[in-house]
C-alpha cells in the first residue's frame, strides 16, 4: 500500500497572532468564528475542527505559523505578526569629562549647605520683636 498525498488549493483567511505557539481554541476565538472559549472547546471536542487536513480533538493543540484550520466549511491559516515596540529608547547623556581642580587654603573651610544659607537668610529677613513689658508681660503693639 502506498501513501498518496493529494494537494488541494483553498482560499483561507489569516488569523493574525503576535506570539507563537497559540492554542487551537484561542485561534478560533481570534478568528471570531465562535462566541467564546467554551464554545470553541466544545466544537473541537465534538470533532468539528480539522488542522492541516486532519480531524483535531485536542483543545489546546499548539499551532505554529502556516498551520491551516478548517471549521464549518471555512479555512484559516496562522499568520505570525510580531508586535513592534514604538517606544523610543532613552539614552542617558554622557557626563562631561572630569577636570582636576587645584585647592587653595580658603577651599579647605567647611562648606555651608544651601539649607544653612536659607535658614540664615530667613533669620535676617524677620523683623525684630518688641520686648515684653516687665509689669504686664505683654509685647508692645506697633502700627
Describe this entry's structure for a reader.
With 143 residues, the protein is α+β, with helices and mostly antiparallel strands. It is 20% helix and 17% strand. The protein contains three helices and seven strands. The strands form two sheets. A five-stranded mixed sheet has the order 1-7-6-3-4. Strand 6 (68-71) and strand 7 form a beta hairpin. Helix 1 crosses helix 2. The longest helix is centred in the C-terminal third of the chain and has 12 residues, at 114-125. The protein is elongated. The termini are far apart. The model has no long low-confidence stretch (mean pLDDT 81).
State the main characteristics.
143 residues, alpha+beta, 17% strand, two-stranded antiparallel ribbon, five-stranded mixed β-sheet, elongated, 3 helices
